[in-house]
Each structure stands twice: as C-alpha cells, then as structure tokens.
C-alpha cells in the first residue's frame, strides 16, 4: 500500500497529529528533524505552524519548501492508544 497523509493538525511546539490512508493516526514530534538549510527556518514555530498536506504528492510540506515523505512520518509516528 502506498501511504498518504489524509489529515494533519498542529498540536503544540513541533508536534503534529497525522492520519494516514490506512487509518493509522498519531503524533509526531519533528523538533529533532529541523536541521539544515531547508528545515532550519521551521524552528520558528510561527513558520512551523504553516505546514500543509500537499493534495497531489501527499508529503507534509513547510512554507519553505521543506517536505517529509509519508513513509518517514509513518515510521516516526507515536500511535495514540
């Protein structure tokens, strides 16, 4: 199955809640991933909050053009009980 992020919401700090097309949902803390030229601007929480789910490609995407593959997000997600 090809994974797609279907829904995403900002939770707090650098934490997002995600729901995938297979029904899995949970939270992911991306603070430790915000390194390098493309991701560093997202350390500003006001920039981080401007994420979006690309309707065609389905990665999480920041306003700076940074994106994270759905497979990475899925593997890092903490499933909520």
Largest sheet: 4 strands, antiparallel
Give me the number of helical elements. 3
Radius of gyration, in angstroms, nearest whole number: 12 Å
Shape: globular
Could you report the average pLDDT, rounded to the nearest whole number?
84
What kind of oligomer do you see?
A: single chain
* Secondary-structure class: alpha+beta
- The total count of strands amounts to 7
Q: What is the strand content? A: 25-35%
- Going across the major beta sheet, what is the strand order? 1-2-3-7
Distance between the termini: 23 Å
Give start-end ranges of low-pLDDT stretches. Answer: none
Q: What portion of residues is helical?
A: 10-25%
Order of helices and strands: EEEHHEEEHE
Attribute tags:
globular, 19% helix, 81 residues, three-stranded antiparallel β-sheet, single chain, alpha+beta, four-stranded antiparallel β-sheet
Account of the protein in words:
Helix content is 19%, strand content 33%. With 81 residues, it is an alpha+beta fold. The strands form 2 sheets. The protein has a 4-stranded antiparallel β-sheet with strand order 1-2-3-7, with helices on one face. Strands 4-5-6 form a 3-stranded antiparallel β-sheet. A hairpin with a 5-residue loop joins β5 (60-61) and β6. It is globular and about 30 Å long.
What can be said about this structure in brief?
With 81 residues, this protein is an alpha+beta fold. It has 3 helices and 7 strands.
């Amino acid at each position: 199955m090809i994974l797609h992020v279907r829904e995403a919401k900002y939770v707090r700090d650098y934490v997002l809640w995600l729901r995938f097309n297979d029904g899995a949902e949970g939270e992911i803390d991306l603070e430790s991933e915000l390194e390098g030229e493309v991701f560093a601007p997202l350390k500003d929480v006001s920039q981080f909050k401007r994420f979006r789910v690309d309707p065609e490609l389905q990665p999480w995407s920041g306003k700076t053009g940074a994106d994270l593959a759905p497979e990475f997000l899925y593997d890092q997600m903490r499933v909520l009980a």
